[in-house]
């Protein structure tokens, strides 16, 4: 409920990016991802971020929609940078009499920027495209693969379910996580108060004797691992239940097929295609 | 607000009670998806009182429950108890949500009690106090019905001696017999325990409380004694 990470949440604005067809946006993103796969250098990174920044401004999106990452993601990125820094490698940087091998750090920074750049493009797609248009767009893009017997309709139906279930699931996961934190606080309070005289409110009656610090740490670690497994199991169960409910509701309506948006190509699509092609060509030319 | 003067709910601070002072809550604040769920909520809940918070879907009652449980910090205003914000008192604020299974994370009933350092005999005592006689500590939680899970959840809160217990839709999805059992369990809680029940079903939940607060559109529209 309190999630700061808004996946697939549409921001209602009137802009050229919002008027661009979902099919065009997905194809542009795919082109940039392929470009990165073949030319994973600094120029491609700059291309992705430039395209993202231009799209963000053109879509007239407020800064408030940029997500605040959970601390664990920030710590993950930071620890990656630290590991990269200590791994050394070319090029060497002389800092006084000390030679610092910056190769690992440079690779790690580039890797982080690629990851965040692709995530940013995905978020842009969600902010500027009504979720209900995505299954139809994917069906259009995957249509040629029917020739090789790819179950396109099944894939699209799965996506339609995922799009509907995602917000509910995110809410439920956030609630479960909040409740787990409160539960952990209550556990910790009882553990702490086991070694001090009972307070009238903390409910310290019947608390068993306190083990040593090392044993407490091991116990805390074991409890945390068990809780993470329990949360994952609970969330999976919840996701399956929600999907089943929505699948039944879709079938009750008479069809499990996602609606297809057959809107025609327009000027925004042409501009988006030109910008994307120019970016991809520029990356290949400059990086060759 | 009505002219009624309920005994347990007032706008005046009470020692040891829960004070909500001009509380408001905005989901996704400072984002394009910002949504005001509560505004200008001010009242005091006396210690040991039994309060019902009722309202239509979307009236903000569940958000208020999460604030009273100390799990949401009000966007504006303050929610305090004993001069401390509720968000700093979560271990003492028992909270039971409608989908109780999401918060009972242990595999068995006994392990759920032992998670909080409650021994087997005390767990048995708590279960008996809540009228649970046919469930063993070795019973797996997923094998219990929704009503049984809620009563086990209540028994855990009872054993933890939480001075404040918040119940979010405790009777939802239960048949008449299940509702009666939950009501009996709630009424078996110690009289000094403050119990706040949040529900959209006033008729069924009325036996759980002595005073009621109605929310409409995120604000208190009525306060009365039952």
Overview of this protein structure:
The complex is a heterodimer of chains A (288) and B (226). The longest helix of chain A has 42 residues, at 152-193. With 288 residues, chain A is mainly α. Chain A has helices spanning 16-19, 22-38, 42-58, 71-87, 103-128, 134-142, 152-193, 213-252, 267-286; strands at 92-95, 98-101. In chain A, 67% of the residues lie in helices and 3% in strands. Chain A has a two-stranded antiparallel sheet with strand order 1-2. The model of chain A is unreliable at 197-207 (pLDDT under 50). With 226 residues, chain B is α/β, with parallel strands linked by helices. Helix content of chain B is 24%, strand content 29%. Classes of the chains: A mainly alpha (288), B alpha/beta (226). Chain A binds chain B through residues 1-2, 6, 9, 11-12, 61-62, 64-65, 172, 175-176, 178-180, 182-183, 185-191, 194, 201-203, 205-208, 223, 226-227, 230-231, 234, 238, and chain B through 27-28, 30-33, 66, 69-72, 90-93, 95, 97, 101-103, 105-106, 115-119, 122, 159-163.
Would you identify the CATH H-level superfamily of chain B? P-loop containing nucleotide triphosphate hydrolases
Number of continuous helical runs of chain B: 6
Derived structural class of chain A: mainly alpha
Q: Please report which band the strand proportion of chain B falls in: under 5%, 5-15%, 15-25%, 25-35%, 35-45% or over 45%.
A: 25-35%
Distance between the termini of chain A: 48 Å
The global form of chain B is globular
Overall form of chain A: flat
Largest beta-sheet details of chain A: 2 strands, antiparallel
Mean pLDDT level of chain A: 82
Number of domains of chain B: 1
Produce a short descriptive summary.
Chain A has 9 helices and 2 strands; from the N terminus they run ααααββααααα. Chain A has 288 residues and is mostly helical.
Question: What labels describe this entry?
Answer:
heterodimer, A: 288 residues, mainly alpha, 2 domains, two-stranded antiparallel ribbon, 9 helices, 67% helix, flat, B: 226 residues, alpha/beta, Rossmann fold, six-stranded mixed beta sheet, five-stranded antiparallel beta sheet, disordered N terminus
């Amino acid at each position: 409920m309190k999630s700061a990470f808004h996946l697939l949440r549409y921001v209602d604005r009137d802009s050229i990016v919002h008027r661009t067809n979902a099919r065009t946006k997905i194809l542009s993103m795919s082109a940039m991802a392929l470009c990165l796969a073949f030319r994973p250098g600094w120029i491609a990174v700059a291309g992705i971020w430039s395209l993202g920044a231009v799209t963000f401004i053109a879509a007239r999106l407020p800064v408030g929609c940029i997500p605040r990452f959970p601390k664990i993601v920030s710590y993950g990125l930071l620890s990656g940078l630290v590991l990269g820094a200590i791994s050394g490698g070319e090029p060497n940087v002389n800092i006084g009499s000390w030679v610092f091998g910056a190769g690992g750090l440079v690779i790690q920074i580039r890797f982080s920027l690629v990851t965040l750049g692709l995530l940013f493009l995905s978020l842009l797609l969600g902010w500027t495209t009504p979720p209900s248009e995505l299954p139809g767009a994917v069906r259009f893009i995957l249509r040629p693969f029917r020739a090789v017997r790819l179950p396109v309709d099944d894939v699209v139906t799965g996506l339609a379910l995922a799009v509907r279930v995602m917000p509910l699931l995110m809410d439920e996961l956030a609630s479960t996580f909040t409740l787990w934190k409160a539960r952990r606080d209550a556990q910790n309070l009882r553990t702490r108060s086991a070694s001090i005289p009972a307070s009238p409110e903390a409910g310290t009656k019947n608390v068993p004797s306190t083990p040593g610090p090392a044993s407490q740490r091991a116990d805390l670690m074991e409890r945390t691992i068990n809780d993470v497994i329990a949360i994952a199991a609970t969330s999976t169960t919840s996701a399956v239940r929600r999907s089943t409910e929505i699948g039944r509701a879709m079938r009750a309506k008479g069809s499990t097929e996602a609606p297809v948006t057959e809107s025609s190509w327009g000027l925004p699509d042409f501009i988006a295609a030109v910008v994307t092609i120019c970016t991809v060509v520029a990356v290949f030319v400059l990086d060759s | 607000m009505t002219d009624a003067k309920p005994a347990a709910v007032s706008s005046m601070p009470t020692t040891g009670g829960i004070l909500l002072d001009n509380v408001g809550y905005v989901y996704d604040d400072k984002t394009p998806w910002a949504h005001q769920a509560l505004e200008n909520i001010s009242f005091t809940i006396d210690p040991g009182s039994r309060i019902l918070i009722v309202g239509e879907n979307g009236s903000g009652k569940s958000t208020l429950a999460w604030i009273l449980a100390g799990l949401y910090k009000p966007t504006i205003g303050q929610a305090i108890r004993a001069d401390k914000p509720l968000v700093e008192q979560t271990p003492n604020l028992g909270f039971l949500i409608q989908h109780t299974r999401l918060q009972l994370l242990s595999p068995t009933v006994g392990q759920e009690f032992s998670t909080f350092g409650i021994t087997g005999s005390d767990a048995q005592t708590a279960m008996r106090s809540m009228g649970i006689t046919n469930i063993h500590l070795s019973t797996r939680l997923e094998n219990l019905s929704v009503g049984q899970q809620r009563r086990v959840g209540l028994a855990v809160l009872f054993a933890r001696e939480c001075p404040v217990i918040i119940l979010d839709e405790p009777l939802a999805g239960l048949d008449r017999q299940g509702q009666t059992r939950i009501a009996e369990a709630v009424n078996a809680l110690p009289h000094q325990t403050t119990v706040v029940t949040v529900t959209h079903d006033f008729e069924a939940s009325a036996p759980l409380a002595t005073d009621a607060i109605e929310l409409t559109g995120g604000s208190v529209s009525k306060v009365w004694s039952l």
